[in-house]
Every structure is written in C-alpha cells, then in structure tokens.
Amino acid sequence: KSNREAAFTYSGKIKNVNPIFDVFVPGLSISKQTTFNGKVNMQRAEIETHFFTPWVYYKNILSDSLALNATDKNGSLLLDLNSSLIELSDSLSMKHVQIAADSRKTRSQVTLSIRNDSTSTSRLRLNTEQIFASGVTRFHILPSDMFVQNQFWDVSPSSETVFESSGIRFNSRAVSLDS
To answer: Which of 21, 39, 71, 145 makes a 20 to 30 Å CA pair with 9?
Structure first.
C-alpha cells in the first residue's frame, strides 16, 4: 500500500443531524456549527480526533462550548473533554468542567475537574485509577481536592471500590470535613 493510503487527515462540519437524534435519542440536540477533524496513521497505529460544538442540549442539560480530543497511540487511549459551562437545572451549573482520561489495557486514570469561577466557593479535582483484572475492576480514589462553600473536604486516597462479577464491595470509604 502507498503512504497515501496508510496515513490521512479528515475534517468536516455537522449539518442538521437533530432529526436523526429525534428518532434514536429523543431530546438530544446539537449545534449546526459543530466541527470535527483528525488524522489516521495506519503504519504507526495512531488515530487522533478533535470535536467541537458551541452547544449540546439533552433534555434539561446544556453544555456550552464542548470540546473532545481523543488520541489512540502506543496502546493508550487518551481522552480530554472540556466544557465552559454545564447546566443541569436552573439552580445547578458548573463552569470550566474537564474530564481527562488515560486508558490502557489493564488500567486507566480519570480526572474530573470543575474549576468554576472566582465568584464560586466550590471547586473539585477528583483523581481516580481503575485497575482491570480477570473478573474484577478495582476503583481507587487518588489524592484529590474538593472545596464546597469554601470548606476543604478530605477525600481519603485509601478509598477503594471493587466491582466483581458477583457483586460490589466498598473498602475504607472515608470523606471528612477539615475544620
């Protein structure tokens, strides 16, 4: 095969896909200004995708300025999802939300960050690790920061949830308010 077939780039703009969503995912609506681009290199087994939409609306949930970057490289899937605003209802909104993930065959790490803005008294940076073994998934909370109404909450890094094919077990679950 030629190098032209082994590596290529792509880009596009989503037109009006909302009638399709009405059939398959009622309540989901996406901006007509949505764009995507990326590249594929078959010789190196690498794929990159970048997706941006000014807004996504699903039932009562609105996401403003949503960007997704995904890279599959060296046996690792890297995801980075950002939104400038997520409104879950009239009274609950989160600003500057990011989910970053690094996933491999036997483990993954995921970080959820909600930075909000200077007027907010709450923010979150939750770091987790998932380890996959035969029939078992172990979910660990890594050192994390959580501030709720200007109060620091300590999330114990020893927290573990084990998902087994026969059930779920919680070990050392500890969240405490630092006074």
So the answer is: 21
